[in-house]
Amino acid sequence: MVFFSFFDVKRFFGEKILFWGAAFISFLIVAVFCVGAMVKILGYVSNARLIFSAQKTLIQAELDAKQASVRRGISHAEMLWANERQASVSSSALPKFGEAKDYIYIKDEPSFFEVFAKADVDNHSVEYFDDYIRFSERLAKIATGDVSATKSPLHSYHYTPDGSYMAFMPPSVENIELIEREKIPQLMQKFSLDLGDLSDPEVRKAWKESRATKWLLPGEGLLLEDQVIRLVQPAFDGDEVFMVYASDLAVDRLKANLQRSDFDGTFFVVSNDGQILLQSTGDKTNDAEMAAMAQILKKTKAWQLPGPNLKVHYSRGLFTVSQPLGDTEWFAVYAYTVKTMGRADHAARAGACGHAQGAGFQGAGIDADAPLV
Question: What distance in Å separates the CA atoms of residue 313 and residue 366, rounded to the nearest whole number?
Answer without folding.
Answer: 5
